[in-house]
Amino acid sequence: MLELRLLPEPAAARRSAERASPQQVAGLRRILEEMAELEGGNGIMAYGAFGLRDAAFHDLVALSAENQVIREALARLHTHVHLFRLLHDTQVTHLAMAEHEEVVAAIAARDPDAAAYAMRRSWPHGPARSSLRRPS
After folding, report:
1. pLDDT tens digits for 25-57?
2. CA 75, CA 33: separation in Å to the nearest integer?
3. Whether 119 contacts 126, CB under 8 Å
4. Which of 13, 50, 99, 127 is least enclosed, having the fewest CB within 10 Å?
5. 10 and 65 in contact (C-beta within 8 Å)?
6. CB-hemisphere CA count at 13 Å for 91?
7. How far apart are CA 90 and CA 68, in angstroms?
8. Counting Cβ atoms within 10 Å, is residue 3 exposed (0-12), middle (13-18) or buried (19+)?
């Protein structure tokens, strides 16, 4: 399921860098601020709230890409729900913050290549998260 997500997600980030409105970029930054408030939170509730904000972040990237097919496909996968359910580890939240900041910076800079690259690196098979994967 996560490998399938790697196909449209970087493409959505690339298009978002080309098409996002200033309001959408501000929305991405707002979501990051909300995630930062939850990042160090204790307990399952803070972790779950962080996961929901993470899903909202990725949905806004897809929305700002102006490609409804990609947005609907990503929403149907529910990958963020599964990822946060399977990897209950606060290290995931710390990694996600830095990675998401790179995505937003590239989108705000209108750099499609950097946005796609940052989004691809933010997924669990990337170098930063490979140690967090559960064994098959």
Report:
1. 999 999 999 999 988 777 777 777 888 898 899
2. 22
3. no
4. 127
5. no
6. 9
7. 32
8. exposed
pLDDT digits (tens, 9 = 90+) for 74-126: 888 766 555 555 455 556 777 888 899 999 999 999 999 999 999 988 765 44
- Between CA 33 and CA 31 the distance in angstroms is 5
CA pair distance 23, 43, nearest whole angstrom: 32
Instruction: Average the pLDDT over 122-134 and give the result.
Output: 49
CA–CA distance, 120 with 132 (Å, rounded to integer): 16
Per DSSP, the residues of the chain read: -HHHHTTHHHHHHHHHHHH--HHHHHHHHHHHHHHHHHHT--HHHHHHHHHHHHHHHHHHHHHHTT-HHHHHHHHHHTHHHHHHHH---HHHHHHHHHHHHHHHHHHHTT-HHHHHHHHHHTSTTSTTTGGGSPP-
> Cβ(41)–Cβ(50) under 8 Å?
yes
Query: What residue type is assigned to position 37 of the chain?
Result: E
